[in-house]
């Protein structure tokens, strides 16, 4: 419902109807619409993080390829989720404005997964990254346009892919041994 009608225009009664339950029953599980929105956001974030975990755990990929896959696979996932559903960006705006804790937690988990890739690259001799945590934070900042929902409806996937490939190539070149 949020993706079709937007977060602001959706009521608890409509959500309850979609779930085949009464509004009163819905309130047993969620205090208000904002809590439902927060739960939806967490689920979307977990889907994205699960995609990244699969990349990190893929033993067939070298660390350099994992960084490329991180960027391009997450970009593809985010673009698919948000480019054709501008009303879903209302939920993104709400979370950014009122539940920054959810965004911060997501970014920390994402940074931790990036750190795993960098550490693996150090162990294999592919990378020379003296401060893995700080470098993961910088890489995350460099990729924000390609891994955050806010930009997905503003650019075509082709435009974003071209830029993402270039940005990823530059930072990989900088951390190679």
Question: What is the secondary structure topology, with strand pairs?
Answer:
Elements: H1 2-5, H2 12-18, H3 23-29, H4 33-57, H5 63-82, H6 89-98, H7 100-124, H8 132-147, H9 157-175
Helix pairs in contact: 4-5, 4-6, 4-7, 5-7, 5-9, 7-8, 8-9
Describe this structure in words.
This protein is an all-alpha fold. It has nine helices and no strands. The N and C termini lie far apart (49 Å).
Characterize this entry briefly.
This protein is mainly α and 177 residues long. The protein has helices at 2-5, 12-18, 23-29, 33-57, 63-82, 89-98, 100-124, 132-147, 157-175.
The CATH architecture designation is Orthogonal Bundle
Q: Which geometry do the CA atoms define?
A: elongated
- Spans of at least 5 consecutive residues with low confidence: none
Question: Helix count?
Answer: 9
Gyration radius, to the nearest Å? 18 Å
User: Residue share in helices?
Assistant: over 70%
Largest sheet: none
CATH topology: Tetracycline Repressor, domain 2
Average pLDDT value? 92
User: CATH class, anyone?
Assistant: Mainly Alpha
Measure the end-to-end span.
49 Å
Q: Provide the CATH superfamily.
A: Tetracycline Repressor, domain 2
Helices and strands, in order, run as HHHHHHHHH
Number of strands: 0
What structural category characterises the helix and strand content? mainly alpha
Tell me the count of domains: 1
Proportion of beta-strand residues:
under 5%
């Amino acid at each position: 419902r949020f993706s079709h009608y937007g977060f602001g225009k959706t009521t608890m009664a409509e959500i309850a109807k979609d779930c085949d339950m009464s509004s009163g029953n819905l309130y047993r599980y969620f205090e208000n619409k904002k809590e439902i929105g927060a739960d939806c956001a967490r689920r979307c974030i977990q889907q994205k993080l699960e995609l990244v975990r699969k990349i990190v755990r893929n033993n067939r990929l070298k660390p350099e390829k994992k960084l490329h896959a991180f960027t391009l696979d997450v970009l593809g996932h985010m673009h698919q989720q948000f480019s054709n559903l501008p009303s879903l960006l209302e939920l993104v705006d709400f979370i950014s404005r009122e539940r920054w804790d959810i965004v911060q937690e997501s970014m920390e988990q994402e940074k931790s997964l990036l750190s795993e890739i960098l550490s693996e690259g150090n162990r294999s001799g592919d990378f020379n990254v003296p401060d893995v945590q700080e470098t993961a934070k910088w890489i995350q900042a460099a990729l924000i346009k390609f891994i955050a929902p806010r930009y997905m409806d503003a650019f075509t996937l082709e435009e974003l892919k071209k830029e993402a490939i270039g940005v990823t190539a530059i930072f990989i070149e900088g951390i190679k041994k």
